[in-house]
Design a protein that fits this description.
One of its GO terms (cellular component) is extracellular region. The chain is mainly alpha-helical and 654 residues long. Helix content is 31%, strand content 6%. The strands form 4 sheets. The protein has a 3-stranded antiparallel sheet. Helix 3 crosses helix 7.
Length: 654
């Protein structure tokens, strides 16, 4: 739950985890706490930054810095913390997640806002406590063996392995647990952060340890997020995660409430959008209010808007239908579950391999278009219109692109095309070259069959997803189904919904070695959203496929990988299930999302349908949180509302 000529990325890197947790933990420890709302003079309670006190009887429920909750008991090989062993996860990835450069799009026209908004929410509610990549403590490294002789391997890796560090163990001993460094609540943490220290830096005014002399606005020089060096000393700025091309210039990273805001341009854009929205609301408030009152009213509305868009647009677009809301329930613990954070919310198959946008050709000077091309952006000028296609590898940790392409066209472009189908296939931009920098001499590495020639090392998000489940003690696929009240699957056919779990008698395959035969992944039939067959050589094969048939059944490959259905990793089994009609998910993933988002709703005292402060704000100042994502985009960019879809979570028909 996180960014195309093949499949371009959350970002719904729906749960990509990057460095920054250690610095965030230190920042939280040093926080100068103050009781919510003290001295504000507001007619409503101000919720804490870190989630504490949301539940009055259990002040730590949902608070940052606490262990994830669990739906099922942790499953470790020794009962305490040793990872369960299984097939090599890159070996699994090459046989299960490998999309063979074939795009398969969403068949309900859910737009790329599905994964971009999903990642924005993810970075509001979850961040595992992780060791630093550069100097992991003893015992943390569990690197993935890379086998260049695997017949299904097409990428080279000069490192000889895929880096992987285990999450830090939560304090306290006993069975190994993991810590969530952010608040579990949908509370716009990604915009404001969870500590006074970060928030003070983000607000206009001095950074002197006294929030009382800050202005009501968020710092937005030129309408974009502040850089780490915006206040002069990048070393004194809040910690931000950097990777890829940003590693060489960390002082230019944008600063936001969450440390991952620079991860990709889609995420950076939505972070910028809601910082602008905060300032827009401030500017509509009466001059007689104090700076703190204006700030807290704007924050309250932004939190409610994030919740409203999530529950009224995002979740319905994904096909998640919750039971009727019956009001706040103080007996519901909203703490994020390990199963949701580690398995259920990882929907990386949805992430498109590129972001495409179009605008009037006059928007960008010729020199800017040339600069785009030099860094790998595909530029097409057609009369008075220009189209930009930003491959995922160019979108990673490249915040300078956001002001260069401008916020309006970028946000409009995210809603202009369907995201990929949520299934077992993951784009090679994530499955093989995540955050990697192209080798010299190959600046235009878009996607497709030439991609392996552009990179010399491998990072595989799909493989990491599987191993992270073992790291966190997530039960096997069938045991996790049981934990969510679902019947276990007794065959591989039952997992995938296919009619067979045997390899076909096919002269193109090596008998008895089908699982290692590259031909096993061939696509034999492609279909569009109307069920019409598409020729593999047609242009529509890159842009319009919503269903595809391979030479071998997924069930047959799973059987050859695992042997027994009871040994299937939870993540692998989950993404292999057929969708429940009208949704983007199989049974297990849908159950995980439904349970967690219901808890985040029912266990949140400040949920928009429960909080009377929002009624006060509407009556006193005429400001309403009930606004669609399209409304927010139009009010904060130069894109007219009429140029956006009524519901931007659905792409226009092709």
């Amino acid at each position: 739950m996180g960014l195309r000529v093949g499949k371009l990325v959350p970002l719904v890197a729906l749960a990509v985890v990057v460095a920054g947790g250690t610095a965030l933990a230190a920042e939280r420890t040093a926080d100068r706490r103050r009781p919510p709302g003290r001295g504000s003079g507001l007619a409503f309670e101000v919720q804490s930054l870190d989630g504490s006190g949301n539940n009055r009887a259990h002040a730590d429920w949902g608070r940052s810095g606490r262990p994830y909750s669990r739906v099922a008991p942790a499953a470790y090989a020794d009962g305490r913390g040793a990872m369960v062993q299984g097939p090599n996860v890159r070996w699994i990835s090459n046989r299960v997640f490998n999309d063979s450069h074939q795009n398969v799009f969403n068949d309900r026209r859910v737009s790329q806002w599905g994964f971009v908004w999903g990642q924005f929410v993810d970075h509001t509610i979850g961040l595992r406590d992780a060791p630093p990549d550069e100097q992991p403590p003893p015992g943390a490294a569990a690197n993935i063996v890379f086998n260049p002789d695997d017949p299904l391997e097409t990428f080279s890796n000069t490192l000889g392995m895929i880096p992987f560090n285990r999450s830090n163990a939560a304090p306290g001993g006993g069975v190994r647990q993991q810590t969530n460094l952010v608040s579990s609540y949908v509370d716009a943490w990604a915009v404001y952060g969870g500590t006074d220290a970060r928030l003070e830096w983000l607000r206009e005014g001095p950074v002197d340890g006294n929030l009382a002399n800050n202005g009501p606005h968020l710092l937005l020089p030129g309408g974009y997020l502040p850089r780490r060096d915006s206040r002069g000393d990048a070393g004194a700025a809040p910690a931000m995660s950097v990777d890829g091309m940003l590693r060489g210039r960390p002082g230019t990273a944008f600063v936001a409430g969450d440390v991952r805001a620079n991860e990709n341009i889609g995420l950076t854009a939505v972070q910028t959008l809601f910082a602008r929205e905060h300032n827009r609301i401030v500017d509509q408030l009466p001059a007689g209010l104090t700076a703190e009152q204006k700030f807290q009213i704007a924050r309250r509305l932004v939190i409610a808007e994030q919740q409203y868009i999530t529950y009224e647009q995002f979740l319905p677009a994904m096909g998640v239908r919750l039971p009727q809301y019956r009001g706040y329930r103080p007996d519901v613990d909203a703490t994020l579950s390990n199963e949701f954070a580690t398995v259920g919310y990882r929907a990386h198959s949805m992430i498109h391999g590129e972001i495409e946008m179009s605008s009037d050709a006059g928007r960008y000077p010729v020199a800017q278009l040339e600069a785009f091309q030099k860094q790998g952006v595909e530029v097409t000028v057609d009369g008075d219109e220009v189209e930009l296609a930003v491959p995922l590898n160019v979108a990673y940790f490249n915040p300078d692109l956001v002001p260069a392409v401008q916020l309006g066209p970028l946000l409009q472009g995210i809603g202009g095309e369907s995201e990929y189908r949520n299934d077992e296939q993951i784009d090679n931009q994530l499955r093989s070259v995540l955050f990697q920098i192209p080798v010299p001499g190959n600046p235009r590495c878009l996607d497709g069959a030439e991609l392996p020639d552009c990179f010399s090392s491998v990072v595989d998000l799909g493989a990491v997803d599987v191993l992270r489940g073992r790291d966190h003690g997530i039960p096997s696929y069938n045991d996790l189904r049981r934990a969510y009240g679902l019947q276990p699957r007794r065959s591989f056919r039952a997992i995938t919904g296919e009619p067979t779990e045997s390899f076909p008698r096919d002269p193109a395959l090596t008998l008895g070695k089908e699982i290692d035969d590259p031909n096993s992944l061939d696509f034999t039939a492609l279909f569009d959203i109307e069920g019409k067959r598409i020729s593999p050589t047609a242009e529509a094969a890159e842009t319009a496929v919503t269903r595809a048939t391979r030479r071998t059944a997924l069930a047959a490959r799973l059987k050859a990988v695992y042997g027994s259905v009871d040994k299937v990793d939870a993540f692998v089994g989950m993404v292999s299930e057929p969708h429940v009609p009208g949704t983007e998910f199989g049974e297990l993933q849908l159950a995980i999302w439904t349970r967690q988002f219901q808890a985040l709703r029912d266990g949140d005292r400040f949920f928009y349908r429960n909080d009377p402060g929002l009624t006060f704000i509407r009556r006193a100042y005429g400001l309403d949180f009930r606004r669609s994502l399209g409304d927010v985009i139009a009010d904060n960019t130069d894109i007219p509302r009429a140029d956006l879809e009524r519901n931007v979570f659905f792409a226009p028909p092709a």
